[in-house]
Design brief:
By secondary structure, the protein is α+β, with helices and mostly antiparallel strands. The protein has a single domain (about 1-80), classed as S16 Ribosomal Protein, Chain: A. The protein has helices spanning about 50-60, 65-75, 75-80; strands spanning about 1-10, 15-25, 35-40, 45-50, 60-65. Strands 4-3-2-1-5 form a five-stranded mixed sheet. Strand 3 (about 35-40) and strand 4 (about 45-50) form a beta hairpin. The chain is globular and about 40 Å long.
Amino acid sequence: MVKLRLKRFGKKREASYRIVAMNNSDRRDGRPLEELGFYNPRTGETRLNVPAIVKRLQKGAKPTQTVDHILKRAQVYQQVNA
């Protein structure tokens, strides 16, 4: 099963995350199928590749709880249903 989840990178105590599509059984920092965006919790900055995310969601990818919250704030689900 493909999941949309966060992949951690950055220095200690200065973490930022990439939003990636990965197989369910792969490790957190393993090789992703596709990189879909960026999230920095310290500054609140998010950059999303919305067409690629919509394509993955339509194919049945399930977002984790945190990624789901990020996508709701960016109103990505409105484009999936359209």
